[in-house]
Design brief:
The protein has 226 residues and is an alpha/beta fold. The chain has one domain: 3-Layer(aba) Sandwich (Rossmann fold).
Length: 226
């Protein structure tokens, strides 16, 4: 587990930033400049803040967080939160990259995060998150990547507080056997996805459509059946 708490970072004009490039195993990757633009940060918060409704001092876990960029973006328009970022790939989710991303996004937006970030590297059957109860758990466009969804959801369900919410965002298919364009993994049908969580004592509370031009992209909010 790694903890990052940024108290003060010198603000630099956003136009000084282009793409942030780095290498992993000799391969070049970059954070596109479009992601770090102030307009994009504001737009994402307009779309997701009304859904997540973050409250001060909440513990928020993000499963399959990747680089953690979305969570940093949310933190810029949120009260102090405790983010627990989880992924199975330590090359993409690590302290060095996360610090650079926070620096880029804060300077682009002209605002500092109040939140703290912790990093956890899981595996295919466990998040490796601490045994605490989370107020909110996010699974953003990564459920379809789970190779052992039953084991992972058993772990996740145990870590959600009785009054907490689990938010799952996915592109939903209108017909069987459709695959994601990027990774080639099968897409979920809506009843299939809902049934997957019902088996884990989680019931659908509400559905959201964050993007008006992406009707097939849905955020599902699940809560524990008590």
């Amino acid at each position: 587990m790694f903890k990052i708490q940024l108290l003060l970072i010198l603000l630099i004009p956003a136009q000084m930033f282009g793409q942030y490039e780095f290498k992993i195993d000799g391969q070049n990757y970059n954070i596109p400049s479009s992601v770090t633009k102030k307009k994009h940060i504001a737009f994402e918060n307009e779309c997701y803040q009304p859904i997540y409704k973050f409250k001060e001092n909440e513990k928020v876990a993000s499963i399959g967080a990747g680089w953690g960029i979305n969570e940093i973006i949310y933190s810029l328009e949120s009260p102090k939160l405790y983010f627990y970022l989880e992924d199975i790939n330590a090359q993409f989710l690590n302290v060095s990259l996360l610090e650079k991303e926070i620096f880029l996004l804060q300077n682009s937006y002209g605002k500092q995060t109040k939140s703290e970030f912790r990093i956890y590297i899981g595996d295919s059957i466990s998040t490796k998150l601490p045994k605490i109860l989370f107020d909110k758990i996010l699974i953003e466009n990564s459920l379809h990547e789970f190779s052992n969804s039953y084991e992972m959801l058993c772990d996740i369900e145990q870590k959600l507080s009785n009054n907490g919410s689990l938010f799952v965002s996915e592109y939903i298919s209108s017909k069987p056997n459709k695959r994601h364009k990027g990774c080639g993994k099968p897409m979920f049908l809506e009843p299939e996805l809902i049934n997957l969580f019902t088996k884990h004592n989680l019931i659908l509370f509400k559905k959201y459509q964050p993007y008006l031009k992406k009707e097939d992209f849905i955020v599902f909010e699940f809560r524990k059946k008590i």
